[in-house]
């Protein structure tokens, strides 16, 4: 009853134009005022305006667009100085991310090992409309994370939340009030009672069958009334539990003067959340499953999305684009490689054929990168894993190739935690390292710059190969560290991955 009364009062004020969510001066902000995470052109009078430091926005008249523009979410990175402000050095943050990778990968392997291979039916997408949605991504360095964060505005009136961008999972979720057991995050948690557009998915809704319940045998006594409970597990005790719900996500469009509210986005309203999410408000799933943000937007904004990840620790931002990016499509160095058949529908598999170090192809059997009959193995690209991982014996051959070809002026360092090989490069400004490339079965070559596969820790003057090994039966993973400063395109209509070198901070 109390919740209904609150909503009724909010709706009354909202319709009267006497919104309680205005700035301290009581008036609307100029539409050209910059919003962190969403770009609105100066003449955009029908968008959303910031209302203060609590992240609330004043809902103005949202312009109706006859055709759906692309969606662009901003990505910006945090500086190493900000990382130090939360009590972590770059070394500590990076090694913590490497340890977190292990738990994440264990969960991925378990997903592939399911009898169904983690598959869920997806509806055929409709024809894509011509414009795109765009949002901001930022590095998680400031909160001690190796992941990338996306700014999303959720609810009515919209509030800004920073969510982890993850191509290796499907469920979108936020920490929600009442937060019965939650990790620490920046800013307030999402409050369903403060949003006019929040609705629970009921346990009788077909979408409820796409998520797991902590008690799978729990009876659905009122299919049209009882909420749909969900439980999503990431490994290492990281999990989120709550109610599956529908909510409005307000985003900016690339068309001049346009913004768009995407209604009825399925997400998890998490009341019990544990894990290594490092201050984020939740997670934005971009996997291939039907509940991911990318899949839900395909029917309107197209069969493609792309992102460009700035350097770990950078102080500027970049963007993730839902829909076609004309600048990227016209890039002279844009390469494509086909997605491989998926052993699990969540992941984006690639046909990796060979690895080159110093321009020489290593003697790695192609079977090391193949998907086995039981669904194990294969190679995926993943934004939520920090490092790249190669199944044995590929990793040992890669490691040895670098040891053999490295300049002997850089002494090897033994016993460095997690990473190997590591070198003493103290006092050396420009370190020369062998080239590193990935060759795919269709002939596409991904040439990586040195800063994408070697990580330097100063003031220690230590530099390590940012690649680790996996058991032979495990999948190989191209992580986000190797994707820095490449514009990466997920072209789902043509079943291919595109990649082109770019200075992501300049996009």
What does this structure look like?
This protein has 507 residues and is an alpha+beta fold. The chain has two domains: 2-78 and 125-308, Acid Proteases (Cathepsin D, subunit A, domain 1, Beta Barrel); 324-506, Cathepsin D, subunit A, domain 1 (Beta Barrel), CATH 2.40.70.10. It has six helices and 30 strands. It has helices at 2-16, 80-85, 90-113, 293-301, 326-329, 394-405, and strands at residues 48-50, 57-59, 71-76, 133-139, 148-154, 159-166, 173-175, 199-200, 228-235, 238-253, 259-274, 282-285, 304-308, 317-322, 335-338, 348-350, 352-357, 360-361, 379-381, 388-391, 412-413, 422-424, 436-440, 445-448, 454-457, 462-465, 467-470, 476-478, 486-491, 496-501. Residues 4-67, 77-82, 115-131 and 139-146 have low confidence and may be disordered.
CATH architecture of the largest domain: Beta Barrel
Number of domains: 2
Shape: globular
Provide the CATH superfamily of the largest domain: Acid Proteases
Structural class: alpha+beta
Spatial extent as radius of gyration: 23 Å
Report the sheet-strand fraction.
25-35%
CATH class of the largest domain: Mainly Beta
Low-confidence stretches: 4-67, 77-82, 115-131, 139-146
The largest pleated sheet is described as: 15 strands, mixed
Describe the structure using short key phrases.
alpha+beta, 30 strands, 6 helices, Cathepsin D, subunit A, domain 1, 15-stranded mixed beta sheet, 507 residues
Compose a concise summary of this entry:
The chain is an alpha+beta fold.
SSE layout and pairing:
Blueprint: H1 2-16, E1 48-50, E2 57-59, E3 71-76, H2 80-85, H3 90-113, E4 133-139, E5 148-154, E6 159-166, E7 173-175, E8 199-200, E9 228-235, E10 238-253, E11 259-274, E12 282-285, H4 293-301, E13 304-308, E14 317-322, H5 326-329, E15 335-338, E16 348-350, E17 352-357, E18 360-361, E19 379-381, E20 388-391, H6 394-405, E21 412-413, E22 422-424, E23 436-440, E24 445-448, E25 454-457, E26 462-465, E27 467-470, E28 476-478, E29 486-491, E30 496-501
Parallel strand pairs: 3-4, 6-12, 7-11, 19-28, 20-27
Antiparallel strand pairs: 1-2, 3-14, 4-5, 4-14, 5-6, 5-10, 7-12, 8-10, 9-10, 10-11, 13-14, 13-29, 15-30, 16-19, 17-18, 17-23, 21-22, 22-26, 23-24, 25-26, 29-30
């Amino acid at each position: 009853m109390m919740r209904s009364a609150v909503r009724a009062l909010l709706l009354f004020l909202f319709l009267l134009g006497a919104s309680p969510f205005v700035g301290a001066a009581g008036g609307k902000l100029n539409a050209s005022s910059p919003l962190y995470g969403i770009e609105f052109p100066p003449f955009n009078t029908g968008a959303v305006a910031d209302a203060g430091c609590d992240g609330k926005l004043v809902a103005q008249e949202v312009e109706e667009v006859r055709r759906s523009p692309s969606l662009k979410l901003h990505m910006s990175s945090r500086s190493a100085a900000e990382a130090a402000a939360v009590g972590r050095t770059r070394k500590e943050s990076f090694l913590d991310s490497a340890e977190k990778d292990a738990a994440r990968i264990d969960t991925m392997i378990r997903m592939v090992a399911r009898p169904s291979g983690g598959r869920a039916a997806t509806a055929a997408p409709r024809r894509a409309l011509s414009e795109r949605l765009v949002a901001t991504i930022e590095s998680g360095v400031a909160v001690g994370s190796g992941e990338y964060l996306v700014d999303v505005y959720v609810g009515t009136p919209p509030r800004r939340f920073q969510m982890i961008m993850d191509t290796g999972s499907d469920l979108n979720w936020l920490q929600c009030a009442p937060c019965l057991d939650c990790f620490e995050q920046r800013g307030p948690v999402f409050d369903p009672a403060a949003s006019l557009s929040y609705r629970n998915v009921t346990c009788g809704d077909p979408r409820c069958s796409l998520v797991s319940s902590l008690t799978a045998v729990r009876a659905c006594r009122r299919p049209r009334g009882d909420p749909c409970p969900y439980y999503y597990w990431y490994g290492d005790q990281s999990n989120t539990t709550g109610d599956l719900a529908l909510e409005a996500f307000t985003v900016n469009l690339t068309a001049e003067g346009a913004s768009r509210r995407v209604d009825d986005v399925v997400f998890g309203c998490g009341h019990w959340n544990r894990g290594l999410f490092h201050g984020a408000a939740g997670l934005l799933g971009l996997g291939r499953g039907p509940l991911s943000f990318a899949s839900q937007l395909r029917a309107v904004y197209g069969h493609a999305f792309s992102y460009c990840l700035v350097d770990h620790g950078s102080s500027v931002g970049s963007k993730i684009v839902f829909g076609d990016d004309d600048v990227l499509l016209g890039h002279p160095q844009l390469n494509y490689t086909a997605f491989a058949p998926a052993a699990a529908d969540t992941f984006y598999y690639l046909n990796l054929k060979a690895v080159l170090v110093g321009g020489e192809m290593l003697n790695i059997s192609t079977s090391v990168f193949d998907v086995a009959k039981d669904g194990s193995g294969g190679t995926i690209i993943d934004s939520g894993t920090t490092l790249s991982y190669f199944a044995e014996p590929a990793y040992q051959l890669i490691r040895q190739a670098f040891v053999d070809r490295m300049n002997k002026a850089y002494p090897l360092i033994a016993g460095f935690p997690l990473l190997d090989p590591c070198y003493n490069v103290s006092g050396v400004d420009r370190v020369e390292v062998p080239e590193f490339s990935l060759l795919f079965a269709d002939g596409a070559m991904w040439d990586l710059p040195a800063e994408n596969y070697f990580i330097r820790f100063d003031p220690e003057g230590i530099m390590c190969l940012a690649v680790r090994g996996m058991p032979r039966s495990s999948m190989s993973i191209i992580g986000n560290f190797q994707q820095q400063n490449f514009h990466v395109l997920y072209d789902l209509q043509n079943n291919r991955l595109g990649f082109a070198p770019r200075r992501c901070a300049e996009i």
